[in-house]
Design goal:
Layout lengths: L1 E3 L2 E6 L3 E3 L9 H11 L3 H17 L3 E2 L7 H10 L4 H17 L1 H4 L8 H5 L3 E3 L9 E6 L11 H15 L3 H6 L1 E6 L5 H4 L4 H14 L4 E7 L5 H8 L5 H4 L2 E5 L2 H4 L23 H9 L2 H7 L3 E2 L4
Parallel strand pairs: 6-7, 7-8, 8-9
Antiparallel strand pairs: 1-2, 2-3, 4-10, 5-6
Helix pairs in contact: 2-3, 2-4, 3-4, 4-10
Length: 305
């Protein structure tokens, strides 16, 4: 990780670079997508922000500033709910209630505290967006996951940290995210780490709480025992998410039917000549924004006196 004139950047391979973008000057394609997919106009944006701020201010025991400092954060909720303020507010409440109920997964979410999971090279944010402008998160929880070195709790916390950075990117708010999960080498010992309670919590976060548009989930290189893991998640999965899940097995050509080769590493049949072993570099990139995480960690429901 280095800092240049445009801010922090992670160099990946020859000619590839990852930045978490914070500019709101969109290319025409993103402007059209915001208007056509989300119904976003300057008027609806202003009206939605005003109403969402009002609802937040009136919610007892919820601390979430509604000044300009949180405007981009509130827009994430409005965009995922297509500018219906009541739906966005419900998602706000769901997130902070989920965090309140699950402190070991959600409290003190700071990059500085989560170095270990990134050191395992389990998590990679791919430098190129896909053909629809979506941000891609790669999670390798087969061969690279050593249970004795890293817990499932740490993996989920790492994913939360990455998603929290991604949801503040205006282009990601508009176009959404894609989750690519590589299960190559999945073992029975790893399967035993999953529980129905964990599956429900994760899906409550994805489906009802997270202010991000999860557009697709691609499962690759999954062995037969993956069905045991999937069986725990399936009862809690809404039809909308089921329709966005694709199981490819060991067939890269199947994956390439959905994601352009330009946005995938060569090991998945793509054209990007990069290694997915820069976890510590990604961790350093997230640590650059530690102050932002410290501020957002204060948001949420406060205990009644």
């Amino acid at each position: 990780m280095e800092v240049d004139a445009e801010g922090p950047v992670l160099r990946m391979g020859s000619g590839y670079a990852l930045r978490f973008e914070d500019d709101s000057d969109f290319e025409e394609a993103f402007l059209e997508r915001a208007k056509n997919d989300l119904g976003e106009t300057p008027e609806r944006r202003a009206e939605g922000l005003e109403e969402l701020r009002r609802l937040i201010r009136e919610e007892k025991n919820l601390y979430l500033p509604t000044d300009e400092s949180t405007e981009l954060y509130l827009l994430a909720y409005l965009r995922v709910c297509k500018f219906f303020p009541e739906s966005a507010f419900k998602r706000v409440k769901n997130l902070y209630k989920l965090r309140q109920k699950n402190p070991k997964y959600c409290n003190d979410l700071l990059p500085s505290l989560e170095r270990n999971v990134f050191a395992q090279n389990i998590l990679t944010v791919l430098p190129n967006r896909d053909q629809y402008g979506r941000r891609i998160l790669l999670t390798e929880i087969g061969q690279r996951w050593k249970v004795k070195n890293c817990s499932l709790v740490e993996i989920f916390r790492g994913i939360e940290l990455v998603m929290e950075a991604a949801i503040l990117e205006p282009r990601t708010q508009i176009s959404g995210t894609v989750l690519l999960v590589d299960f190559v080498g999945l073992s029975i010992n790893q399967v035993w780490q999953f529980t129905p309670n964990f599956a429900k919590m994760v899906l409550d976060w994805i489906q009802y709480s997270m202010p991000a548009r999860l557009k697709e989930v691609h499962i690759i290189n999954q062995p037969y025992i993956f069905n045991m893991v999937f069986g725990m998640f399936k009862p809690f999965m809404q039809e909308k998410l089921r329709n966005r899940m694709f199981l490819h097995g060991y067939d890269n050509s199947s994956l390439l039917e959905h994601l352009d080769a330009k946005c995938l590493p060569t090991k998945y049949g793509g054209l990007m000549d990069i290694e997915t072993n820069q976890g510590i570099d990604l961790w350093n990139l997230l640590c650059y924004y530690e102050g932002n995480y410290q501020v957002s960690n204060e948001f949420g429901y406060k205990k009644k006196k």
